Amino acid sequence: MKIDGDLSLNKKQYVLEIPGRPMGKQRPKFGKGFAYTPKKTVEYENYVRLVFQRKYGQPNLTGQIKANIKVYFDIPKSACKTKKEKMKANIIRPAKKPDCDNIAKIILDSLNGIAYEDDKQVISLTVEKYYGDTPGVCLSLQEDNGNENI
What we know:
Mean pLDDT: 89
Low-confidence stretches: none
Strand content: 25-35%
């Protein structure tokens, strides 16, 4: 996994590596007259919170936020040598589940109240999927309080 971010001066930025197999947010389940969040979703959200809090404690980004999420999947063992090389060179990228929107949802929801008050503060979001040697998610959050030249 590679983290690269725009380390601009005077802006808070948090860069985080979340090791392990990436997961998307699952749909709520319904049973006996109520809805509940699936166990795997709750466990992954708690894991993301834990990784963030171990590195940064409980900071709170204020204002508008730009989020960049890079997702890395294992290269399939069944892929031939030529295909594996193309996967490593990002010529072939993973067009597979989980979907980018569900990956973003589980990551951003998990950091509500920890990295920021609410994920509604995210005004710009990029999600990219790659193959890599180590599965995981690289997250970059940066405050963007509109101090750019227009």
